[in-house]
Amino acid sequence: MKKVDYIIVGQGIAGTFLSWFFLKHNKSFIVIDEKKESSASRVAAGIIHPVTGRRMVKTWMADILLPFCSSTYEEIENHFSVKLFHPLPVAELLSSAREYNDWMSRSEEAEMKSYVGNEIAQDLYSEFLHPVFKKIAINKSSWIDISSLLSTFRNLYSAKEILSEEKFEHDQLKLDDGLVEYKNIRADKIIFCEGVEALQNPWWKDLPFLPAKGEVLVIKAEMELRHVINKKIYILQIGKNIFKAGSTYSWNFQDDSPTAEAKDFLVAQLKSILKIPFEVISHHAAVRPTVKNRRPFLGLHLQYPQVGIFNGLGTKGCLLAPYFAGHLTGFLLGKNELMKEIDVTKMNWS
After folding, report:
1. How many CB atoms lie within 10 A of CB 261?
2. Domain around 34
3. Residue 162 domain-assigned (yes or no)
4. What is the band of 293 on the pLDDT scale with cuts at 50, 70, 90?
5. Looking at the whole model, is its pTM more than 0.85?
6. Is residue 73 part of a domain?
7. Which of 44, 130, 212, 348 is deepest in the core (most CB within 10 A)?
């Protein structure tokens, strides 16, 4: 039987960053992951946007998360000699004077000054986009190449023979003498980073998840963008003439398969933004592990402290994961307490 410090279940954005901090602290681990192409991390665009929602609110903890995030991605880039982090402003397309005035009003507030940028020249992208009332730049935003991030770490796990590519079987997990045992692996703790699969997890299924299905298109169009375009949906350039466009939000769904309704919606939105032809190359869908208050779930089970969780990153995974993976690692190593806002033992989830 193999003995390690930790078992990590799931290799999405949460599990990947947790493994990074375990590596940094010389902790041994095994990753168990089935590798579903429809996982939320693999379908996500990887956009980091410091302003949340239509109310134009600064993202929770943005002033702390953003610098930690950029330094962590750069540290990983240097370690693996791979490019992951792409600073990229967002261009908010505004349809009316009211929208513009709302943005300008928010930009005068002290906490928003560094995030809401200048007006973008009206003629920028005029050959690609339909005219709008105004375009406003959002600063300190970026795009993360999630596919490269996940593949880089997966290759490392395979090389080190610490990856088990299988669907985790919850009924095979044994808790004994303060340790955990799964098939031929024995560990001090197991940390579940399994996204929406947590809804089927007997230790964590009662957490107040609000899973949301999102669908995206990959399209081809002859244009070049230096911003993420945002107007109800985003348009992100991921290659030469190749773009991701999304996303939909659905809280009532049957499964994680792409739907004709979502495709029609996204195509209609694209036509309202783009005045040039485009081709839909592929259509993807996934279910996000969203949470009502947009706070992740971290910590150890009250009754079984050898069972932990790192989940609930929702649509902000690329921003939240680096900081909170480090925060959880510090807690597991006895270096810090968990913030009460994200500590599962402080929540009324039973």
Report:
1. 11
2. 2-45+147-207+292-346
3. yes
4. confident
5. yes
6. no
7. 44
Rounded distance, CA 36 to CA 154, Å? 13
Residues in Cβ contact with 6 at an 8 Å cutoff, skipping those fewer than 6 apart: 22, 27, 28, 29, 30, 187, 188, 189, 190, 191, 332
Do residue 284 and residue 229 come from a single domain? yes
pLDDT on residue 108: 86
**Mean pLDDT throughout 299-318?**
95
For every residue of 59-113, DSSP letters joined together read PTTHHHHHHHHHHHHHHHHHHHT---EEE--EEEEE-SHHHHHHHHHHHTSTTTT
| Sole residue written with tokens 């003439």 | 241
Q: Degrees (nearest 5) of the Cα angle 59, 61, 67?
A: 100
What lies within 8 Å, CB to CB, of 285 at 6+ separation is 38, 43, 213, 214, 215, 216, 256, 257, 258, 259, 262
Tens of pLDDT, residue by residue over 256-290, are 999 999 999 999 999 999 999 999 999 999 999 98
CB distance 5 to 27 below 8 Å:
yes
Question: What are the Cα distances from residue 332, in Å, to 18, 175, 222, 336?
Answer: 11, 18, 49, 8
Phi first, then psi, for residue 341 (nearest 5°) are -65, -20
pLDDT of residue 349: 47
